[in-house]
Amino acid sequence: MTARRQRALLCAAILGLLLSAVPASAAPIAVRIPEGNSHGFVDFYAGSRKIGHGELVQFRRGKELENRLTVAFDDGSLYDETVIFTQARVFRLRSYRLRQEGPSFPEASEVSFDAEGRYRARVRKAGSEEESAEGHIDVPPDVYNGLTSTLLKNLAPGATAEVHQLAFTPKPRLLNARLVPDRDDKFLVGRETRIATRYRIGLSVAGVAGVVAMVIGKDPPDVYYWIAQGTAPTFMRFEGPLTADGPVWRAELGPPRWAR
């Protein structure tokens, strides 16, 4: 097939998708279970091998809450994510900051943005010079970087939702995020059987850029969360890449590591 023919087919496919595309209906997630102070620990695995240990701390700051996840990997890599949000009837992200570095990640990056649309991003791929961008972007009220497990705990049983996230390359890109209950898995507490719902988080690039990504197969991979059901839903497990080009990892609640 000639290059001209390939381009023609690609343009035809994009046009068809544009003509048939239906805008996603996304909206802020209502608060069913208000968040409070919490402190927990999480272990990261590559297959059956433990590769890192993390700490999740959440506390109130006046009318806002701060949620921070830090993960130290055995190879010296670091993942450090801080989210500040409010929960007056619906969840609203106020600011977000992420720093990741080390050999566990395909690129080192440091990004931040706030609800007013101010952003700054620095990205450096292995063997390449650092790229940076800063400026302003319109942030929809349903952008929820770093709050996926919180949103899932607040969905009614069996409910789906569509929200947004921002990705930086280093320029910002708006992602559609579809939260879909995938199946129910059983787990044991002593001899008691409990249920955790596995949710699939389908990510796709929003707008015309997303149509192109769909055609050439460049949408971000899906990730999965397990949420224990009941009167106090809680996060139990994550599976997927932390970054679009990263390896698939599993994260589960775990104990602290005691000093010896």
Largest sheet, spatial ordering of strands: 8-7-6-5-4-3-2-1-14-13-12-11-10-9
The topology string of helices and strands comes to HEEEEEEEEHEEEHEEE
Calculate the terminal CA-CA distance, rounded to whole Å.
Answer: 65 Å
Report the sheet-strand fraction. Answer: over 45%
Name the average pLDDT.
87
Number of domains in the coordinates? 1
What is the oligomeric state here?
Answer: single chain
Low-confidence stretches: 5-25, 208-217
Over all CA atoms, what is the radius of gyration? Answer: 19 Å
Query: Main beta sheet: strand number and arrangement?
Result: 14 strands, antiparallel
Number of strands: 14
Which descriptor suits the 3D outline?
globular
Helix content: 10-25%
Q: With helices defined by DSSP (H or I, 4 residues minimum), what is the helix count? A: 3
Content-based structural category: mainly beta
Provide an overview of this structure:
The chain is mainly β and 260 residues long. The protein has one domain. Helix content is 13%, strand content 52%. It has 3 helices and 14 strands. Strands 8-7-6-5-4-3-2-1-14-13-12-11-10-9 form a 14-stranded antiparallel beta sheet. Strand 9 and strand 10 form a beta hairpin. Helix 1 packs across helix 3 (207-216). It is globular, with a radius of gyration of 19 Å. 21% of the residues are buried. Residues 5-25 and 208-217 have low confidence and may be disordered.
Concise overview:
Helix content is 13%, strand content 52%. It is mostly beta strands and 260 residues long.
